[in-house]
Structure formats: C-alpha cells, structure tokens
From TrEMBL:
Gene3D superfamilies: Naphthalene 1,2-dioxygenase Alpha Subunit, Chain A, domain 1, Rieske [2Fe-2S] iron-sulphur domain. Residues 353-378 are annotated as: Disordered. It comes from Nonomuraea monospora. PANTHER family: BLR4922 PROTEIN (PTHR21266:SF59), IRON-SULFUR DOMAIN CONTAINING PROTEIN (PTHR21266). The keyword 4Fe-4S does not apply. Residues 6-111 form the Rieske domain. This is Aromatic ring-hydroxylating dioxygenase subunit alpha.
Amino acid sequence: MLKNFWYALEFGHAVERRPRKVRCLGQDFVLWRRRDGQVAVLSDLCVHRGGALSMGTLAGEDRIACPYHGWEYEPDGTCVKIPANPPGRGIPKKARVDAYPSVERYGLVWAFLGDLPEERRPPMPHFPEHDDPAFRAVYWETTVEANYERTMENVVDAAHTPFVHGTAFGNPDRPEIPDFEVTQDEWQAEADILLSPPPPKGLWGLLRSGVRPEHVVVTNGWYLPNIVKLHVRLPFGDLILYDHNIPLTQGRTQVKIVGYRNFFTGRWADGNALKRIGRIFEQDRPVVESQRPELLPFDLSAELHIRSDALQVAYRRRREQLIKDGWWVGGDDVVTGDVPRRQATVIPSPARRENPELARAWVHKTRGTGAESEEEQP
Ligand code: FES
Ligand SMILES: [Fe+2]
C-alpha cells in the first residue's frame, strides 16, 4: 500500500455533519462536514487512550469530541479542550492527532494520506467527463475479500474479459489481444486496446447488422495509486468507468466506481447502468478472491508476464521505484484487524514535516519519514 497519494475515501453524498469512520491503508479515519461545507479528515485515534473519535460528537463550531473523556479537537488536529483539567490548566502540546488535507471532487471526498508539502504531492487524476453536461454519472460500491492491487490489475487486464465475462463485452471466439502501445508518465499509464466485439446480443443487438465493427477500441489505464480508467467506445456512445480500489487493509478492498455515459442519459437508465456494473463485477469477484499469493509479489519475476500484460508490468515497475523511495506502507503499519497490538502507528500528516519540533512531540508514531518511531522493546 502506498502513502503520499490522494485517496478517494468516500462518496461526497455519504459525508454529512455527523462523524463517519472510513478505513484506508489499514488505518481508520474520521470524516465530518464542517460548517463551511469542507470535509475534515483526521486520524480516528484519540491521543489520550486511543478512543475512536468517529464514535464521538461534534462540539462548538467544528470540533470533534472524543466519546471517552470528551477531549475536543479542531479540524487541524489540535486538542483545544480537556474537560478533566481544572480551569486554567494548559493543554499539552503533544495533545494532537494527525489531520489530512482534503478536497471534494468528482462526487468523492479525497484525502492526501502522507506528509509531503503541497508542491511535491502527486497530482489527482482528472475526470473530464464530470463537468461535461453530455455525460451522466452513477456511483457504485462493494467490498471484496482480495488485495487492492489484485483487484486493480484485474480491471486493467483486457485478456481476461472473454473468459470471465463471456460475451458481456468480449468475444470468446476471438480472445487474442493485438499488440498495443502503452503511454506512460510518472503517475499514470494507458493504452488503446482492440477487442473483438461480442456476438450481436444484448446491447449489441441494438445495432443493425452491417454496422457491427470489426474491433472496438477500449482505452484502459491506471492512475496511481489505485484507480483504473476503462473507456469503452460502444457504437452508440461512450462508457467511462473510474474504478477506485481502496485498500481497507492488505486483504480487503473497497471498490468504488464512478461510471459516466453519454447515451441513455435519463435518470430512468441509472438502475440499469448500476446493474450492469454489478453483474460484471460479480463475475470478477470469485477470480480475484481466489488468486494466490493474495498479495501482489514484489519481485517482477515471481509471476509470468506476456505482451498483453504490459499495463500491469508498467504498474509493477513504477511501484518498485516508489517502494525504494520509502512510500510503501506495510503490514506493520496496519492498525485495524483482529490482532491485538501494543503500538498503533499512523500515516504521517503534513503538519509533522512542516514543524519538526512538533513532529518529535507527537505521541502517535509513524514509520518511514517524519517522526521516526523507536521500535517497541518486547
Ligand atoms: S481516549 Fe479520547 S479523551 Fe480519553
Ligand atoms: Fe473483469
């Protein structure tokens, strides 16, 4: 799992005033909508005794009060009230939790999970269809018992479609993938892939015979850290899916899809669009949940790659570089789960790097950059 990226954590319509727990990178976060409409994103770990702030309530203007002893935190993570202290007693400087930059875009609430200063943060992907009135969006989600890199690679993998999805958008009689070229930069890669269209049934049956093309062009690609774009050019319009593979933990993924279409753009067709996404996804689910090893190997040679796997290979090489750069968040950083732990680490937030003195004062430890933790002695 990679830190130092913007992650879409929740659909905007699901975030209200009421504090809400979300999970990502094996960590819990609390979200709430501030009075000005912006969304606050804090580590869900109270610095006092590790209570879950998401079980607390809002206090004052925009503070969150811990449900255990009522400590109150501002959206920037500073503690401003400790009810057990008699009046006049100061608040320790160490009383703060990590707060993460957030942005609401494309119907999603994004948080920057890392400590890089603004100018060094990787860009958020651009979804041009969102502001184009010709397109209509639907929002779909599910949870999968599989690693997010497995589910992500599944969606960039064109070669599985005729096998896993039958004639839904591939042709089992023509499974070969013509060679394609990958265009890539530091943060994304994409390719135009030619697929043989399925026999004229279902949606494809809408086409009069004779206009059935030899190939359909599917643009497929990834955006780091966890998004896949799938643009299917149907003869009657465009279907563009942005598939977010949110690593809840290493072995469990929440998939959130924003799907745009410029055909059948009435609200009446939303249910059908969602049903189609769901049906396709349920065909993928048993496959990705059965893959072994569960986690994507670090070593490129641990699995066999062929030409049609070029997008996945590009991803794995880029990921290798980011791991070398120290952006990897591993099993030791996962604080959610069934295993009792004596130490909870958090993803470092920008405030730690902005103020090194503060970083050293921080109670919750991080690994990697920022405030280095001492390993606990057994
Ligand atoms: S655990 Fe949060 S106030 Fe005590
Ligand atoms: Fe699939």
